[in-house]
Every structure is written in structure tokens, then in C-alpha cells.
Amino acid sequence: MPTSERLDCHYCKDSLLGKKYIMKEDTQYCTKCYENLFANNCEACSLPIGCNCKDLSYKDRHWHEQCFKCGKCSRSLVEKAFAAKDDLLLCTECHAQDYSSKCTTCKKTIMPGSRKMEYKGNSWHETCFLCHRCQQPIGTKSFIPKDTGYFCVACFEKQFAYQCSACKKAITTGGVTYQEKPWHRECFLCIGCRKQLSGQRFTTRENYPYCLECFSNLYAKKCVGCTKPITSLAGAKYISFEERQWHSECFTCMQCSVSLVGRGFLTQRDNILCTDCGRDK
What are the LIM zinc-binding domain coordinates in residue numbering (predicted)? Predict the structure, then answer.
């Protein structure tokens, strides 16, 4: 047979005719040379993983099929779910027992992949996270913590929440108190213009709340000069004379418009005049 037609091991040059051999990157090797050159060592037994064995790998680590076992209970992990912890491979049961969180209610392990609830460092099976009042699973619905319990919104409102004096619905967050009664912020309104009063200055009349503008328009005395309301609630200064009132800035001579605040003045029928203009009359 011509040399060009020989089938030899690329490494040891032994003839491969009639023998088992392995191809790697278009090059043939006898099984012995292939194992010496390329076989991976098993992580468990440290022996080479030969051509007649399955090579099971995980993150650049290799095992014989019979060596691929849970690092704690030694059960085979072949074709089974497993988890890695440090350098160990563990079956899901061993991993859950040692490393998974425990349910705060039933104290049992919450298995990986199962639905759970977490809140402030505690964990629950989804079916164990119950409303403290109705004992129904809260699941993914909203809940409200109170003391050492957890309540669905409906039960919290029934047991703890104040009822708004305006709309009669529960106040779950915020709110204001007026005349020892609770109100939603959005329900506490001026009786006149219905503007929200929460965070604003307001006053009352006959137990009804008013914004300063409405109260002034309805009840404040009017300035003789500009006819606009005079209210001390807004910090306005005013002058009063013979049951008539003026804003300080409006208390001026009817003829020359000089301010009369702190000065003498004269009256002419309903008009007020500075002393100079009054003498000229």
C-alpha cells in the first residue's frame, strides 16, 4: 500500500487500519493517544474521562457519568435539576434544605422555583401569607402592615381606618383633622368655592371652613376707597372712622391723594381731605 494511502495515528504513527480511532480537527488519533492528549480529568475521582465514557461538564468542570452526584446525599444528578454552592453541586432538595429560606408561618423550606412572598427580610409560601383578619391568602394584592400582622386593604379599612366626614370612605393614608373629625385631604374644601384647603390658610364661620378669599368676599367690610374687602386674616392694615373703613394705602385725601395715615384730616360730607385741601374749600 502506498504511503499516501496509509491510515496512521497522527501522534504515535501506529497504523489505525482495523482499529478504533478518533477524529479531532480533521486529524485522526488512536484512542490511547487521544485520551493521553485530550481527555478531561474527572472532578470527583481525578481519573481521565476515556473515550468509552460520557463526559458531563458544567462551567469548565468535567465528570464521569457515574461520578456526577450530589455533594451531600450522593444521589446521581444525571438529567436532574441541580444547584451549585461554592464548589459543590447539590440536588435541589439538599440545596433547599441547607440554603433556601424558611416560611415565617409554617417554618418549612420554600423550595426553589415555588412562588413566595418577601417583606422586610421575612419570606412566606404564597399560600401562607394570610390576612390577619379574614385569613385569606393576600397573594400579589396590596396589603397594609399593622403591629405584628398584615391586612388586606379591605380588612384594614374595616378594622382600623377612619371614615372621611365628607365622603364616608376610609382614610388609609394622610388626611386632615378639623373640629376633631377626619377628612381626606382632597375632601376638605372651602364651603364657598370648593377649593382644597389642606395646607392653606383658612377660617371658619358657623363651623363651616372658608378660604380667605371667600370669607373676605362674603363677610369682610369693604374699603371706602377701593370697595375691595378688608380682612385682617390676610394681614391687611386698615383705618376705621365713623363706622367706615379704609385700607391703609387707600386712606388718602380725596383731592390731592396724599396719604392721611398718622396725619390730621377734615371731612366734607362723605369725603376726607388733608388739612391743606380742607382749608381751601
Answer: 40-100, 101-162, 221-281
